[in-house]
Amino acid sequence: MPKLKDFGLYFITDSKLTKKTVIDDVKSAIKSGVKIIQYREKEAPIKQMLEKAKEIKKLCQKNSVIFLVNDRIDIALAADADGVHLGQGDARYETARKLLGKNKIIGLTAHNVKESVEAEKLGADYIGLSPIFSTSTKADAGKACGTEMITQVKKYVKIPIVAIGGINESNIGQVLKAGAKNIAIISAILTKDDVERAVKGFIGKIN
Questions:
Q1: Measured between alpha carbons, how far is residue 86 from residues 26, 59, 105, 106, 108 in Å?
Q2: Whole-model pTM?
Q3: Which of 5, 4, 23 shows the shortest CA–CA distance to 15?
Q4: CA pair distance 113, 116, nearest whole angstrom
Q5: What does the pLDDT look like over 158-199, one tens digit per residue?
């Protein structure tokens, strides 16, 4: 599988935060130039999740955007997503790799250098370093690791690192200064009336 290159803004959906619909947000993100989208849904019925995932897959495929599913290997398989993102409490990497095969992308959450190094050793395609700042988007995100952690992890890990957690307009500068090339922003985008404009603004800052 070709190794993932840096992709800039990492877009994550959230049906609780959106002011429109998840699909509207995905369309806005793609239109604004996002190269990778993660479908994250914790509470919807499985049939509804699958319908949404298939719809997002179509949009992503048409626009050459990478499509990942958070946590749910079953949904990723059924929708033929490009891969999954797994948190520390989700399915094991080995299980996911066995089910998805060697050509799909698997990203793993890490909170420190040790977990990041372990994730790379396992074969993860990228790391979601989390949470950089304290965040209310994810209840179980844990204690903020700070921007210094980005600099530390970059010394030990070659695969792409996605900085995530509490990142917004006022602190993104610190995140970029620490060496982050890929940044996930949720609340600071999805709570805005104009998602497209918000995405463009952050892409401009990252690039």
A1: 21, 23, 11, 7, 5
A2: 0.96
A3: 23
A4: 5
A5: 999 999 999 999 999 999 999 999 999 999 999 999 999 999
